[in-house]
Design the sequence.
């Protein structure tokens, strides 16, 4: 009986998802953020994501994910505790997520708020506090990149900017990331070197995301705004994985 109720819930979420324009509902009550974080001050952060459905298998989640992306949402499949959530967007403030959830509900769409936390790594065995500060600065830049993409997606959804200007800002974000990587010191120990390589690898993956976004052309009904939402959720997921990797949790 419990299993049947689960699939009824999933089916209802999919059906109402076909009847809404997600992008407008996701942005109508949200404003841009306050800006980037200061270098070296990273202490972890949380985002509050809007989930339009949850599944026990990734393949099942992908159908709703595709439908969500074609309606202006991210369509990002996020795995947590053996469940796969189809995320439409994410917000720094829980109240913003609640306002969006209310908008979706009024439009006939059931949603759930998923909290995603990127904690501060422990950096066990690091050579010095100065080296730790350098690595924290690198993590701060990753958060700043998420914030910038978030702001761009809101501006696109509200008509405050166009795709050409959005892509120029994405190129700028990529440039900021490259500059930040050059500023990271490699450290003096083997452990420092491992941490540096892990961070560098994540930077490279994020640069790939940004390069894809700056070259993106709308296909299959998926807008640039939708791809940007998918991009910033990918960055959050990669940041979380990076912290777990540094702390030897994966």
Sequence:
């Amino acid at each position: 009986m419990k299993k049947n109720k689960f699939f009824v819930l999933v089916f209802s979420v999919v059906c109402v998802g076909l009847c809404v324009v997600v992008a407008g509902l996701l942005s109508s009550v949200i404003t841009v953020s306050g800006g980037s974080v200061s270098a070296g001050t990273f202490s972890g952060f949380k985002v509050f994501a809007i989930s339009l459905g949850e599944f026990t298998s990734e393949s099942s989640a992908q159908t709703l994910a595709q439908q969500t992306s074609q309606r202006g949402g991210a369509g990002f499949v996020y795995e947590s505790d053996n469940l796969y959530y189809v995320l439409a967007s994410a917000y720094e403030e829980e109240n913003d997520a609640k306002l969006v959830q209310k908008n979706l509900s009024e439009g006939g769409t059931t949603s759930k708020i998923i909290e995603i936390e990127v904690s501060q790594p422990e950096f066990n065995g690091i050579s010095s506090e100065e080296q730790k500060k350098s690595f924290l600065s690198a993590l701060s830049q990753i958060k700043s990149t998420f914030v910038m993409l978030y702001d761009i997606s809101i501006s696109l959804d509200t008509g405050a900017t166009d795709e050409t200007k959005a892509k120029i800002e994405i190129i700028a974000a990529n440039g900021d990331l490259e500059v930040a990587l050059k500023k990271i010191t490699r450290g003096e120990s083997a452990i420092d070197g491992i941490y540096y390589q892990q961070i560098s690898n994540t930077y490279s993956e994020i640069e790939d995301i940004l390069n894809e976004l700056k070259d993106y052309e709308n296909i299959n009904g998926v807008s640039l705004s939708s791809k940007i939402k998918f991009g910033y959720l990918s960055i959050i997921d990669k940041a979380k994985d990076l912290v777990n990797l540094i702390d030897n949790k994966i």
About this structure: The CA atoms of residues 80 and 116 lie 9 Å apart. The longest strand covers residues 45-55. The chain has eight helices and four strands. The two ends are 35 Å apart (CA to CA).
